[in-house]
Write a structure and sequence with these properties.
Elements lengths: L1 H7 L3 H6 L2 H18 L6 E5 L5 H8 L3 E6 L2 H13 L6 E5 L14 E6 L9 H14 E11 L5 H9 L14 E5 L2 E5 L4 H7 L4 E9 L9 H6 L1 H14 L11 E8 L1
Parallel strand pairs: 1-2, 1-4, 2-3, 4-5
Antiparallel strand pairs: 5-9, 6-7, 8-9
């Protein structure tokens, strides 16, 4: 799988990070993430699937120590360039790591927070979730928190999009056992989890604290070209997303949802 994300790294920022939709959705994630991390206490954070380093830089600039990991050496290379450019190299440690194999004895009880953004955990199936849950619990401090941004089993915008395109077989594609999803032109096997299903998967080791929608009004990033053609539409979407996308039930139907889990 690493070679897929090596290829995707070449255009990932162009395809998502630097898009109108990408910036809007990431801003919503940071709003909730900062509510947990912004208490004035420096945290030791493990980031999984760090991509090109946008979140690692944000957390480092907020005063936290970040161990940023990814399976792709090219993603990590891009992250290294960015953290050097931003002067964050002293606060961000980089390590190549497969999210399916995160057990490291030297990391036991080391992290205040484990964080993974924009569907990093959608890259592992149901059986791997069980191992992931146990491994993460060992890496966290006793009062540690796990924060994930996940793609649910249904997205209103996506379903409308496929109906409009007359691709009826794709309308409920997220309900399938797994899907070969497009990531910057590369097909990656992807599993989708509702907030209820994910919370149950992490019981009893973790307790759900909160769920928030990310992209209830904002569409998936592959609709960027439409949004750019109609600036007024994006302004309306941005207003609605920031003002009214805040209820936990919306997470079941958004492009992503933010879930915060407390270790027991």
């Amino acid at each position: 799988m690493s070679e897929h994300f090596d290829i995707a790294s070449k255009t990932y920022d162009q395809d998502f990070t630097d898009t109108l939709i990408g910036r809007l959705q990431r801003g919503q994630v940071w709003k909730y993430l900062d509510q947990y991390t912004g208490n004035g206490k420096p945290l030791h954070i493990l980031e999984l699937n760090c991509g090109t380093g946008e979140d690692a830089i944000h957390l480092a600039q907020s005063g936290h120590m970040v161990t940023a990991t990814d399976i792709s050496k090219e993603m990590l290379s891009r992250t290294k360039e960015k953290i050097n450019d931003k002067g964050c190299s002293r606060k961000v440690r980089l390590e190549r790591l497969d999210v399916k194999n995160i057990s490291k004895s030297e990391w036991s009880n080391q992290f205040d927070l484990v964080f993974s953004n924009f569907g990093g955990l959608n890259c592992i199936g149901n059986e791997d979730l069980e191992h992931f849950k146990s491994d993460i619990k060992k890496l966290l401090k006793p009062d540690g928190v796990l924060i994930l941004v996940i793609m649910p089993e249904f997205c209103i915008w996506e379903s409308f999009y496929f109906v409009f395109k007359l691709k009826m077989s794709e309308v409920f594609r997220r309900k399938k056992p797994s899907v070969m999803a497009d990531v910057s032109g590369v097909k990656v096997e992807t599993w989708y989890y509702s907030p209820k299903k994910l919370s149950k998967a992490f019981t009893p080791e973790f307790t759900k604290v909160k769920v928030k929608p990310i992209g209830f009004f904002a569409p998936p990033s592959y609709m960027e070209s439409l949004i750019r053609r109609v600036p007024a539409l994006f302004k309306f979407i941005e207003f609605m997303e920031k003002r009214f996308a805040r209820f936990s039930w919306q997470g079941r139907m958004s492009d992503h949802y933010y879930i915060e889990l407390q270790a027991r």
